[in-house]
Design a protein that fits this description.
Blueprint lengths: L2 E3 L8 H5 L5 E2 L14 E2 L9 H5 L5 E3 L9 H9 L28 E5 L3 H10 L6 E6 L6 H5 L6 H4 L1 H9 L4 E5 L9 H7 L2 E4 L5 E2 L11 E2 H8 L16 E5 L3 H11 L12 H8 L5 E5 L11 H8 L5 E4 L14 H15 L8 E5 L2 E6 L3 E12 L2 E14 L2 E4 L3 E2 L17 E2 L2 E2 L5 E3 L2 H4 L7 H18 L10 H11 L4 E4 L3
Parallel strand pairs: 5-6, 5-8, 6-7, 8-22, 10-18, 11-12, 11-18, 12-14, 13-14
Antiparallel strand pairs: 1-4, 2-3, 7-23, 9-19, 15-16, 16-17, 20-21
The protein binds flavin-adenine dinucleotide, NADP nicotinamide-adenine-dinucleotide phosphate and iron/sulfur cluster (2 copies).
Flavin-adenine dinucleotide binds next to helix 4, strand 6, helix 5, helix 10 and helix 15.
Length: about 500
């Protein structure tokens, strides 16, 4: 009986290299890896050895006989990935990325990494494969690991387990975490370069896209709401109107599903998690019975991923439905494996009668917010049009008013410019070539500040590897200046600037 990859897969591909028969795909060197919503095990070739289970940092792989009811859909989802066109001749083992090769120089690489989210931690891990290397990680918050700790929803505890992998990275010799130190405020780019060969910015995307419609200031952004339920110190004091029977979430990405689920699921089921106690108390007193998650295009353009939809549909005590007349499949390519399963599940949800359910999520489509009115949202109804193969939403002229007490916008994150670095306003990223910042020697980027705010925790692993490979190439070719000050000098500088910070510790 084969093993099966389930919902919490974060695409870090650790399992791929543990598998003795190369039956987990797509592998990082295959073209569909970049767009894969999760990885899949081929049941025809899996020899049931279990090696992938221990390699997986988030417990996403389960032997078939141990699948719970909520995980059963993944049996078919895994198998069906291999059911279409053959994947071609496979090597016996997946291709392992080549190790970094470093030339001997008087000072081994010393690298500053700004931020301690997934991109930073994977970058640190790569640098520390070099004998004698030192990494100083600067994190502005008192606790590390970025959105892996402060973004992942509290009811996704298995995904949160990825932080134990980061603890292991942080426990390596040569790793130094300076928590509570903000680069740009407490230490400058030039000072970092005096103490290191190079600086890798892995600062993420800390802001969000803003809705630009009349009354938009009445909405709460998902960024704030997530920070509130995850106990971010700057948002712990917030209060939200949870008295009305309906809330609306604008946007239908995975963050939208997270906030909708946390808002409406039985608060009792959150009590055993590390949700902020203030948020839990507020949710216990909530009068919300329905959360409407609204997309402006059709179901084929739902930004949420298949595993998250499967998880949502199987959340205990929660009824999930879709509006049948809005499942317009214009231009949908059902040869795409994940999309085919997503649409099949949406059609099934549309047939469910949830009218009597005490807690429900309704997935709505073809609605663009036009105005926030104070008692809800006016939506312009759309139809889909295909032009040159591109599907776009076009307003029909019809308007639907949806009453709601709380309106959340979940329309994507956005990076802020990093002082001293070039910034592309359109994409909200730092321009770079394979991670090297254009025109600024010794400066690199990784993660969301490099690629934009998309992808899973594990996506940052290959992204960080690319950046560190570029950095080491520059080190080997003598393009990076040796540091002019030592570690003791760095510590006294940091102590003078941030006496309260936790310096140099391996966090665990
Ligand atoms: C709400 C939410 C939930 C998510 N849930 C999942 C999930 O369940 N599974 C999944 O696979 N992916 C999930 N993701 C995606 C995943 O979290 C991201 O891919 C990943 O965190 C991006 O990594 P990063 O290192 O680029 O940025 P971040 O994780 O944002 O890390 C950036 C770090 O830099 C620090 N920083 C910023 N500026 C400075 C400065 N000047 N000085 C010092 N430190 C600084 C920040 O405090 C932060 O710790 C989620 C994303 C969001 C927004
Ligand atoms: N469990 C997980 O694995 C997990 C959890 C959370 C986040 N993440 C990842 O983190 C990344 C960020 O997620 P996200 O949900 O913030 O972003 P996202 O996936 O980019 O979704 C943004 C949504 O906002 C909509 N939108 C954008 N501008 C809009 C506007 N002006 N008006 C109305 N709607 C608008 C988009 O619709 P259009 O498509 O029509 O533009 C889309 O539905 C994603 O890659 C996600 O997969 C993963
Ligand atoms: S159980 Fe063994 S053979 Fe099957 S996918 Fe996992 S590592 Fe590969
Ligand atoms: S989280 Fe990583 S190790 Fe686990 S199944 Fe997904 S890709 Fe494999």
């Amino acid at each position: 009986m084969p093993h099966v990859v389930t919902q919490s897969c974060c695409n870090d591909a650790s399992c791929v290299h543990a598998c003795p028969v190369n039956c987990i795909h797509p592998t990082p060197d295959e073209p569909d890896f970049a767009t894969a919503e999760m990885l899949y095990i081929d049941p025809r070739t899996c020899v049931d050895c279990g090696a992938c289970v221990s390699a997986c940092p988030v417990g996403a792989i389960v032997p078939q006989h141990r699948l719970g009811d909520a995980q059963l859909p993944f049996l078919e989802i895994n198998a069906d990935f291999y059911g279409g066109a053959p994947r071609g001749e496979q090597p016996i083992l997946a291709k392992v990325p080549p190790p970094l090769t470093v030339v001997q120089r008087p000072v081994p690489p010393r690298v500053a990494i700004v931020g301690s989210g997934p991109a930073a931690m994977y970058a640190a891990d790569e640098v520390l494969t070099v004998p004698g290397a030192r990494v100083d990680v600067y994190e502005k918050l008192p606790v590390p690991y970025g959105l892996a700790r402060a973004g992942v929803a509290p009811d996704h505890q298995s995904t949160r387990r990825v932080v134990t992998q980061f603890d292991t990275i942080a426990a390596q010799p040569g790793f130094h975490l300076h928590a509570g130190v903000e680069v740009g405020r407490d230490i400058s780019h030039e000072e970092l370069l005096r103490h290191h060969h190079a600086v890798v910015y892995a600062v993420g995307a800390s802001s969000d896209r803003r809705l630009e419609v009349e009354g938009a200031e009445r909405a709460v952004s998902a960024t704030e709401f997530v920070a509130w339920y995850n106990g971010h110190p700057d948002h712990a004091h917030r209060t939200f109107d949870l008295s009305h029977r309906r809330a609306v979430v604008i946007g239908n990405g995975n963050v939208a599903l997270d906030v909708a689920r946390v808002l409406i699921r039985d608060p009792g089921s959150l009590a055993a998690t590390d949700i902020s106690p203030a948020a839990l108390a507020a949710l216990r007193g909530s009068g919300i019975e329905e959360v409407m998650v609204v997309g402006r295009r059709g179901p084929a353009h739902s930004a949420f991923t298949l595993p998250e939809l499967v998880g949502l549909a199987n959340t205990p005590g929660l009824a999930v439905s879709a509006a049948e007349d809005e499942l317009d499949l214009t231009g949908a390519d059902e040869s795409d494996h994940a999309l085919r399963h997503k649409l099949r599940l949406l059609r099934e949800l549309a047939r469910r009668d949830v009218s009597g359910a005490a807690r429900r999520i309704t997935l709505r489509y073809l609605l663009t917010p036009e105005r926030l009115t104070g008692d809800g949202v006016d939506f312009a109804r759309n139809t889909l049009r295909v032009d040159d193969g591109r599907v776009s939403a076009v307003a029909t002229g019809e308007v639907e008013h949806v009453e709601a007490g709380l309106v959340l916008t979940s329309i994507g994150y956005r990076a802020l410019p990093v002082p001293g670095l070039p910034f592309d306003e359109a994409s909200g990223t730092v321009p770079h070539t394979a991670g090297r910042v254009a025109g600024l020697a010794g400066s690199y980027v990784a993660g969301w500040i490099k690629r934009g705010p998309t992808g899973f925790i594990g996506t940052n692993k290959s992204c960080a590897r690319e950046t560190v490979s570029t950095l080491i190439q520059d080190y080997n070719e003598g393009r990076l200046t040796d540091p002019s000050a030592d570690a003791a000098d760095l510590e006294s500088l940091l102590r003078s600037r941030r006496p309260d910070a936790v310096l140099g510790a391996a966090y665990a």
